[in-house]
Sequence to fold (1043 residues):
Amino acid sequence: MPADLLPNAESVAQHVAAFERELAAAASPRDAQSIRDRYLGRKNSVTASWMQLIASAPPDQKKNIGRYANELKQAIEARWTQYGEHAAATARPAGAVDVTLPGRLPALGHRHPLTVVRDRLEEIFTRMGFTVVEGPEVEDEWHCFDALNMPAEHPARDMQDTLYLATPMPGLDGDPRERTLLRTHTSTMQIRYMQAHQPPIRIVAPGRVYRRDNLDLTHSPAFAQVEALVVGEGISLADLKGTLLAFAREMFSPNIRLRFRASFFPYTEPSAELDVSCWQCDGAGCAMCKKSGWIELGGCGMVHPAVFEAVGYDAERYTGFAWGIGIERIAILRYQVEDIRLFYENDLRFLEQFPY
Amino acid sequence: MRLVLSWLREFVDLDAPAEDIAEKLSIRGFEVASMEALDGGDAVIDFEITANRPDCLSVIGLAREIATTYSLPLRDREQTPSLASGRSDRLAIHLDDQELCPRYAGAVADVKIGPSPGWLTARLHAAGVRPISNIVDITNYVNLEIGQPMHAFDLAKLAGPEIRVRRAKRGESIVTLDDVERKLDPDMLVIADCDRAQAIAGVMGGAASEVSASSTVIVLESAYFKPSSVRRTSKRLGLKTEASARFERGADIGAQVRAIERAAALIAQIGAGRIAVPVVDCYPQPRGPVRIVLRRTRLGQLLGAQVPDGDVERILRALGLDVRANADGWETVAPTFRVDLLREADLIEEVGRHYGFDRLDATFPVATAPAPAPDPRIARDQVVRRVMTAAGASEAITFAFIEAKAAEPFASVLGGAMPVAVANPLSAKFDTLRPLLLPGLVDAVAHNRRHGRRDVRLFEIGTRFAPGGETRALGVAWTGNGAAEHWSGGARDVDFFDVKGVVERVCDALGVGVRCEPASQPFLVAGQTASIVVDDGPARGEAIGLIGQVSPAIADARGLPRHDRVFVVELNLDRLAAVRAPASDAARPIPRYPFVVRDVSIVVADSLPAEIIRGTIHGAARAVPSPLAAISFFDRYQGKGVPEGAVSLSIRLTFQSSERTLTDAEVQQSFETILGALVREHGAVQR
Fold:
């Protein structure tokens, strides 16, 4: 063998580089093993062939060949060990799973958005010391109107177009001569609660109410309200303002402002419409508040003395306030829903957008 | 009420722009529907007038509010001369019913009918009233200005110079100005001549005595009619007019003669004729003044703020009250046009409204007693809602009323009664109160299916109605997957046992054990229908709900794809809560001794309900030494190796004692005893 073909520093480096290249391209552990064997194996490997050269080499070369063969062997072994460690570190362990595959979702339904709003209202008012009460949806005229200072023939009865039942329903304690109806407001609960309890009173009464309306973008013949009633000695309009302010700041935004526009409800005196400053634009005017800076929330006022008299309370001793707010109204604003019908269509593509 | 600003300025010397007036008035109780600019710098503000303020259905009424708002004087109309009143030889008025008509003023006028001058027609146009002829226009003008409706009769068309205010006679009828014949009844008040009704009091005049181009002598009517009577009449006839709207809210009983005086001045001004004096004013029992005491302490207490005395007096006087201060506050007399001012609270509202609600403090009411417990239904419904969402169902809210056709197939649950009908539905879609929640839920499923949704799981907690009253129920509708599709497999369609499991969970969450009994309902598929029955406590045996698959006929009728299998549940939550037997809250100790399990497979007739087998096992277990802690049916097989009409059931029995470790021998003995009972009672064959 010519001297220049004998192992030298250069050929060691070439073999090491070739080994690295081949190893990097190895497709499998088995493949890698056969590459290693071609360099380090006891037979037919590079190192083995170099060792064989020693026997036939000139004496002055024997030592060098042995040294280079050793160098090559060590270098290949070092890289093989390194490769093995790396492979061990990166190999998929037995029983490995593809963690990127979709999980098995436990079935979990969503609360209706009107329930989400109602739950929130109940939570806020409960914290303010209110008791949540409920009452019947089918009512008698006395609880719905007369006791609320709307006697028969009162023009205010026109304000709420009422749905009556074709035949009276028993079990209500109003005047049996009066017709049975679907309650037009949750204010009926003021009467029912005061008939059964003495002041102090601090209640909220959520529930469904009915009006003789067609179903369209902004109207529904059935919707939900939450009524509030506070009765005691020395309850004032300032208390009404403070309570509503605390509620509105929790419900909508801590910076909210209130506006009371005088209005008329037969069962409150003074009466007002409640507006809150628009929380989207902070009163500057935007699409949500129709450029007015204010959003109408509902009606409120001081309980009319005639209402106290109807339930046998001393109207001189007790004062109180009440309000009614539409739950759909809050949901429409909060979720920016433009069509009230979405709440009753029960389309899962809509319902599934709301909290569990 | 369309307020023309130039008209307003005849009463208030105000140059504020329309926007400012609109904003200030809307805070004070007069919501603004719209505003529009008119030629010549004039403008109209359309105010919504609440039912308690008929006085503001007039220019003068709104002018008074505006004068109070801006602290400006309200100008009285000096140019209206007063007219003498007394007996007239040209007109006799008989008030037969003073209850329904406490005051009736009339005057004869010699007139020349023609068109009104331009300024008058322009003003009526601006106010939204169509001009007709000078006399009719003047009655409308006066009505708009001072809020007193008037009517003009052609005297020549009356049976004589005599007006009689009386109730309609039985069977009497009248053709009104709109050329409709109206049948009257004795509850209705009419204005008649000596022969017949010539007008429906406060609602509409009659065609027979209508003022026409040829009229030369007219009778002008200016009256006060009892509000409830006008309202009833207007409602019964289905006839709403400008006049009836004002009368039914309450006219000003002090304005009748003033209205005639104003009309007289206008008739003279436009040269349409002249009113003959004296005016005949029938007011046999003048109303006493409405005196209201306002206490300073009450005012402060109700508003939660001290309003300075000066402000109180300024506001009340500007609104037309007679105000006298005394040591505790004020003695006031309400003006006759303010029919809404009856008691102290009404005055407090007036003060608060004009003083400004925004100037009041915001305080939080002091609690003097702990809040009582809430309605127990609230917590109950929340538990049900939690269980249902955990079962993968989303909450639906459907309407409580449905169409009669949709309710019909479900009426079987009412035990022969008819579903509750709405007397005055706006649409046939909403004419019946739902007897169950299911019809609405089935429709909600159909809606989702139509929109390509395969898997639908919905529930609703809501009210349903029977002739005997309302109850709250849980409704569930489930179609599509019982177990969801996943890359690992395991998808399967919903079946009876998915919904039954949900029912068992809900009932368990509310502390009531239930079982299913085969049942039939016309709206559910035969053989896949069960009644949910209370299984423990004193109400044991009471049916409180049902489970089943919606029948194809219903599915078809409600627009569901034909092959859909929709499983439904309806559960009476009120009964469920009521039948709950009181149970101890104490936690049971965790067993200290090991349990022993024995599995057995038996072949029995496939018609034998599992419930019976369970009963047999329980019965036999009472007499065995090892306490039986649990029974579970873990496999059910029919097919190869099992004879036709039979089924192989695999049952796992778990024995456990709370006192000792069970021995193999006694468990074996217990197991064999139980097996023996199954063999004896059901001919079971062990596999």
